[in-house]
């Protein structure tokens, strides 16, 4: 079999595992499905010869975060099953179907997909050029978060003073 | 390239699955799983857009631009930190609300 057939099989496995992880009633089985999905992504990345990223992805997501998920699921056990909400599910599925079909149409219709980044440019300079907007947004987010935490802290202090006075 | 389109379609479908979890589920742990799936999808897009296929003779070589080498690593690190923080918040909120259901967590005062 050619490589594209193998990639398609592993892709289908990854998507099925992801859907099973979201739809499974038992949270521990959902975590196991997440591990299967991470393994499928690992195989796909190895097929694309992105070896370093494949291993880091497997270690961080398939290993570390899965362990955290297992701990959280075991600490929050004895949960009652989530009741099925038709309205919420229908709206979510409709939104997802519209977005996914639109994106797939754009990708397939675009034809020649551009390659982002130029290997010939100087490495640190090109990283900076690519990251300027990202870093500015992060700075804005950091400032907003700092202000919000400061306001919450002051409110908490004021409330604490009032309680101790009374 | 065909392989790029395949990787992009996988990323889009995985992003859709994650978005469905975010919009349609009430269990916080499942919502966090959805966010993890969406982060993986974003990483796949980074790799797909930064992969260059070159055919020399009969052999096809794959090259990665600095975009595909650096951005997924940063995204992985940030995504792992976000997930750890989210799971810590779930545990903390579970101690107060005794539930991981978002509707039951919605009340701030108890």
Describe this structure in words.
The complex is a heterodimer of chains A (166) and B (110). Chain A is built from five helices and no strands. By secondary structure, chain A is an all-alpha fold. Chain A has a domain at 1-79. In chain A, helix 1 runs antiparallel to helix 2 (27-47) and helix 2 packs antiparallel against helix 3 (51-75). Chain A is extended, with a radius of gyration of 23 Å. Chain B is mostly helical. Chain B has one domain: Helix Hairpins. In chain B, 74% of the residues lie in helices and 11% in strands. A two-stranded antiparallel ribbon of chain B has the order 1-2. Chain B is elongated, with a radius of gyration of 19 Å. The mean pLDDT of chain B is 84. At the A-B interface, helix 1, helix 2, helix 3, helix 4 and helix 5 of A face helix 1, helix 2, strand 2 and helix 3 of B.
Brief descriptors of the model:
heterodimer, A: 166 residues, mainly alpha, 5 helices, extended, B: mainly alpha, Helix Hairpins, two-stranded antiparallel sheet, 4 helices, 2 strands, 74% helix
Q: Note the quaternary state here.
A: heterodimer
Low-confidence segments of chain A: none
CATH class of chain B: Mainly Alpha
How many helices of chain B does DSSP assign? Answer: 4
Spell the H/E element sequence of chain B. HHEEHH
Largest sheet of chain A: none
Shape of chain B: elongated
Uncertain segments of chain B are none
Structural class of chain A comes to mainly alpha
Largest sheet properties of chain B? 2 strands, antiparallel
Instruction: Report the β-strand fraction of chain A as a percent range.
Output: under 5%
Instruction: Indicate the radius of gyration of chain A in whole angstroms.
Output: 23 Å
């Amino acid at each position: 079999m050619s490589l594209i057939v193998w990639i398609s099989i592993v892709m289908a496995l990854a998507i099925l595992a992801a859907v099973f992880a979201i739809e499974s009633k038992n949270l521990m089985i959902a975590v196991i499905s997440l591990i299967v999905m991470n393994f499928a992504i690992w195989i796909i990345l190895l097929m694309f010869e992105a070896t370093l990223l494949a291993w880091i992805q497997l270690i961080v997501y398939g290993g570390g975060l899965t362990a955290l998920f297992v701990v959280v699921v075991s600490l929050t056990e004895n949960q009652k099953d989530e009741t099925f909400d038709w309205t919420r599910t229908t709206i979510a599925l409709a939104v997802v179907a519209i977005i996914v079909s639109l994106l797939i149409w754009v990708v397939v219709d675009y034809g020649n997909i551009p390659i982002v980044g130029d290997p010939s440019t100087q490495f640190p300079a090109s990283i900076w050029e690519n990251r300027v907007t990202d870093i500015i947004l992060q700075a804005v987010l950091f400032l907003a978060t700092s202000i919000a935490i400061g306001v919450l802290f002051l409110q908490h202090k004021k409330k604490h003073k009032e309680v101790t006075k009374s | 390239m065909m392989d790029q389109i395949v990787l992009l379609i996988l990323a889009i479908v995985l992003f859709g699955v994650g978005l469905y979890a975010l919009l349609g589920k009430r269990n916080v742990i499942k919502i966090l799983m959805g966010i993890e799936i969406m982060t993986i999808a974003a990483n796949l897009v980074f790799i797909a857009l930064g992969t260059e296929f070159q055919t020399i003779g009969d052999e096809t070589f794959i090259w990665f631009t600095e975009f595909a080498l650096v951005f997924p690593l940063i995204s992985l690190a940030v995504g792992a930190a976000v997930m750890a923080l989210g799971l810590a918040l779930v545990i903390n909120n579970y101690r107060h609300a005794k539930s991981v259901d978002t509707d039951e967590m919605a009340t701030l005062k108890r």
